[in-house]
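hiii so um. not sure if this is the right channel but i have a protein structure encoded as tokens and i wanna go backwards to a sequence. like what aa goes where. can anyone help
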């Protein structure tokens, strides 16, 4: 009612509430309003509502260093190797035009990158900022309250942010999150896009069902993901989501840094 475009207010609002240590109760309040209009559990926090935008901005501000220590080394490796013949994934896009050996090599490279990014993420919970954990804890319990008969919704409520809106977006646009100095070239962008799609799918709570696999436009990605249909991946995601949505005190990780709320 105050702003013509409510999203113009999101960033200053988040910064103001962060300064006064009031962001968690505010996010809980607007998320509860958001959930009232959510009819199906599988669409939870997928739109661009005031609640999701506030959490997005919070993660960008509070989670900047968390992203850096978790993803920057592996993103640097991907970008370096994507410029060499060893790291190119182009055979995946045109498998019928290239020899079998090249295609196999590219699939192996993609598998290596996805494995490494996934492994870095699921073991990073100790570095997740306390404020993010508090917000995720609140969202998890609000989701479980809204859909009490769905045991998976408490996980998808968190994964829709930390995987889809945080890690996956940072992988595909590392320059936006200050993980890389420049926008990657076309070849590197294509590699990062495939890795990001993989992380989104692995981060979605539950097993990799046929319906999820069929959502890929590229046939080779369906075949590729069949190699990830193992319980260990699902269990790793579950444990990670449990850890980052817990309010239990964590050991100091030594990777926190001051949050700048105002510049200039």
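sure thing!! here u go:
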């Amino acid at each position: 009612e105050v702003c013509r475009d409510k999203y113009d207010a999101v960033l200053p609002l988040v910064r103001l509430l962060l300064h006064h240590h009031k962001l968690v109760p505010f996010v809980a309040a607007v998320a509860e309003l958001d959930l009232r209009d959510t009819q199906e559990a599988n669409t939870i926090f997928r739109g661009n509502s005031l609640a999701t935008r506030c959490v997005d901005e919070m993660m960008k501000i509070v989670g900047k260093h968390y992203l850096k220590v978790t993803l920057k080394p592996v993103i640097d490796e991907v970008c370096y190797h994507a410029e060499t013949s060893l790291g190119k994934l182009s055979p995946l896009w045109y498998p019928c035009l290239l020899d079998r050996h090249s295609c196999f090599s590219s699939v192996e490279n993609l598998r290596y990158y996805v494995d490494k990014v996934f492994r870095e993420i699921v073991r990073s919970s100790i570095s997740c900022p306390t404020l993010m954990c508090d917000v995720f804890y609140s969202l998890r319990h609000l989701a479980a309250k809204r859909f009490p008969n769905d045991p998976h919704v408490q996980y998808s409520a968190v994964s829709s942010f930390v995987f889809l809106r945080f890690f996956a977006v940072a992988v595909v646009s590392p320059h936006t999150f200050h993980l890389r100095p420049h926008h990657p070239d076309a070849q590197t962008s294509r590699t990062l896009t495939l890795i990001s799609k993989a992380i989104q799918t692995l981060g979605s709570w539950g097993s990799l069902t046929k319906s999820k696999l069929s959502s890929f436009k590229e046939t080779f990605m369906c075949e590729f993901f069949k190699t990830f249909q193992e319980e260990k991946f699902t269990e790793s995601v579950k444990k990670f989501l449990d850890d980052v949505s817990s309010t239990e005190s964590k050991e100091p990780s030594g990777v926190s840094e001051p949050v700048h709320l105002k510049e200039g």
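oh and The chain has one domain: 9-244.
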